[in-house]
Write a structure and sequence with these properties.
heterodimer, A: 126 residues, alpha/beta, 5-stranded parallel sheet, 5 helices, globular, B: 513 residues, 7-stranded mixed sheet, 20 helices, 11 strands, 49% helix
């Protein structure tokens, strides 16, 4: 699924730029958001094919963005990959309970990120 | 006694230059054009003398065998780039703050203002100084202005006197600056006559004593940028002492943006003028009530607290260094204290707070950093952790306050400026972000991520030329400073991903141009 559109959400402009670069190198179109509210807005207006969501966001955090989207019939089919620095199992469990499709811990390996994205997109289109 | 430069004090032959140039090009991708021969020579001398080598050949052998040494050399070669208006904030400070202040202190009988550019290479710095003088309050008053450029390379001085600069030398200048101060001539551009008329050049070796009498008095301002990088401490002390003798009371010494004289001398006052760190020769018999101390060589180094607006250093407690020392590329890493003698424990708590922050546990990081600050209220790194934690939580005004408190403690901390820049960027105030990244780079030109974010902002605005320059600087500094304090802000990504991101962005920006 080339040219799929991915919404990448991270509050660090530095990290966001690097994630964007990884995704572009994988042939994806990328839109970005820097906080939870913007993420929700863009998810609803742009209907991305997949969302990469940082857990730590100012205001509405990643878990809540994820829960809100997964709760909504219109958006629940958009795969969400959560990105977080948290390593504890507890936060992993929170991630899955909120309905995230996958969970990647930082530091992110570009190859792992691309293969996770490809997996999730394949599930949706398959 | 002069620095033992032996054969190294001679200019590089064309063959020697080509040999180094080709090796450097092959191993770094940086191609040194002929005009850079002097930059290379100075860097070679600086490095070779550390190992006691007496000629270029021996040093070349070491360079080939030792990658670390190659990196050290490249560090110098790239910092030594000379250009017009290099670090423009220094020239702004000269024009807007230093000149008016010095004029105010001058006696009625004195009708001249003299600036010495020591180590002027091919003349860009003294000509820039002349342009700045012409633009300053000096023009309104009938002062005789004089700029002297000195260097040890006759070859460089010849080029400085010729004053014909190729297109590349003025490529970074704005069109209005070029139009105002330069005239086209065959082979490039030349500073206009009114600028050239102010500047004279003369041979002088800074480490050779005694200094000629003509140099030893009556200077209002001396520029000598990067001397502490090139010489040994013993030589640096003598050079700085000579500058002290040469300056008028109240005169200013401009050093490189990342240099400090805190470990070199306590004879100068360290002051901040318009965000630039300068050294001032105290006025005679002057008492500084704010510090409660008369100026005396017996007192420990204390920067003077002055009430001028524009920000100054606060006086640290006795026994603390007058200014944080800034070894190049070795700014205090997060987790270490801001260079002062911290009580035991604060550093460890700050390191713990940093780790919590990296794990995304910003609430706990805030508390841990607060505990560190209870032990050492001047722990700038702990304040920075708190700044980042507040920003993570979206509390930008608290984040800014903490970052500014960190800067007040350690004005030469690039990380604090960088964190402020990121906060401004997150707030959407991109102009303010660019300013902060600029300040971060002013104190640490190798703070890689400040270049990167500067480039990203320009790119987002469609300013592709500036963006390209930013990405190029990111790559270049990444190469020379791959493990600096900036890596703490890389979010765990590897350097090579940053490099690839830059390369890709460069290509895209060039397409956009």
């Amino acid at each position: 699924m080339a040219n799929a559109r991915i919404l990448a959400v991270d509050d660090s402009p530095t990290i966001l730029e690097m994630i964007k670069a990884i995704l572009v190198s994988g042939g994806y179109d990328v839109i970005t958001a820097v906080d939870g509210n913007e993420a929700l807005d863009k998810a609803r207006t742009e209907m991305p094919d997949l969302i990469l969501l940082d857990v730590m966001l100012p205001g509405l955090d990643g878990y809540r963005v994820c829960r809100l989207l997964k709760f909504d019939q219109k958006y629940k089919s958009i795969p969400i990959i959560m990105l977080t620095a948290k390593t504890e199992e507890q936060s992993m469990a929170t991630g899955i309970r909120t309905g995230a499709n996958q969970y990647l811990t930082k530091p992110i390996e570009p190859e792992k990120l691309l293969s996770a994205v490809a997996d999730e997109l394949a599930k949706v289109s398959g | 006694m002069a620095e033992p430069l032996s054969n190294l004090s001679k200019d590089l032959t064309a063959e020697q230059f080509a040999r180094f140039r080709d090796w450097i090009h092959e191993h770094s991708g940086i191609y040194l054009e002929e005009t850079r021969v002097d930059a290379l020579r100075i860097s070679l001398v600086a490095r070779a003398t550390r190992f006691g080598f007496s000629d270029y050949h021996d040093y070349f052998e070491l360079l080939v065998a030792d990658e670390t040494e190659f990196n050290e050399l490249m560090n110098l070669v790239t910092i030594n780039e000379t250009s017009f208006f290099r670090f423009p904030a220094q020239f702004d400070a000269l024009r807007d703050l230093v000149i008016p202040e010095v004029l105010e202190g001058k006696s009625k009988a004195s009708h001249q203002f003299r600036v010495w550019s020591a180590g002027c290479s091919t003349g860009e710095e003294p000509y820039t100084i002349a342009m700045t003088l012409l633009d300053s309050a000096l023009s309104a008053e009938a002062f005789r202005r004089e700029v002297l450029g000195t260097d040890v390379s006759m070859q460089a001085l010849d080029r400085a006197r010729d004053a014909v600069y190729p297109a590349r030398a003025i490529a970074n200048l704005s069109q209005s600056v070029v139009q105002r101060w330069f005239e086209p001539v065959p082979g490039g551009h030349r500073p206009i006559k009114s600028v050239r008329d102010l500047v004279e050049f003369s041979y002088h070796n800074l480490v050779k004593e005694p200094y000629p009498l003509a140099l030893l008095n009556n200077w209002d301002v001396i520029f000598c940028r990067n001397v502490t990088i090139y010489f040994r401490m013993e030589s640096i002390r003598r050079v700085i002492d000579n500058f002290y003798e040469s300056l008028n009371p109240g005169g200013y010494l401009f050093v490189g943006h990342s240099e400090t004289l805190a470990t070199v001398t306590d004879r100068f006052e360290s002051v901040e003028r318009g965000g630039v760190f300068l050294y001032r020769k105290p006025l005679r018999h002057r008492v500084f009530p704010a510090a409660g101390l008369g100026v005396s060589h017996a007192v420990p180094p204390l920067p003077m607290v002055r009430s001028r607006p524009g920000g100054v250093w606060s006086a640290p407690a006795p026994g603390e260094p007058a200014a944080p020392t800034v070894p190049r590329g070795a700014r205090s890493a997060p987790g270490s204290s801001g260079g002062t003698a911290a009580p035991l424990g604060a550093g460890a708590l700050t390191a713990e707070a940093q780790a919590l922050l990296e794990q995304g546990r910003s609430g706990e990081a805030l508390l841990m950093a607060a505990r560190a600050l209870e032990l050492d209220e001047r722990d700038a790194d702990a304040l920075l952790v708190r700044a980042s934690a507040h920003a993570d939580a979206g509390d930008f005004s608290a984040a800014i306050a903490e970052a500014e408190a960190a800067i007040a403690i350690d004005p030469l901390q690039a990380s604090a400026r960088y964190v402020l820049g990121i906060i401004r960027q997150q707030q959407g105030d991109l102009d303010a972000a660019l300013r902060e990244f600029g300040r971060a780079l002013y104190v640490d030109p190798e703070f890689v991520l400040a270049h990167f974010n500067t480039a990203n902002i320009h790119r987002a605005r469609g300013e592709y030329e500036e963006a390209c320059r930013g990405y190029e600087m990111t790559l270049r500094t990444l190469y020379v400073n791959p493990a600096g304090s900036w890596t703490a802000y890389l979010g765990g990504f590897r350097n090579d991903l940053l490099a690839k991101t830059c390369e890709r962005s460069l290509i895209e920006c060039r397409r956009g141009m």
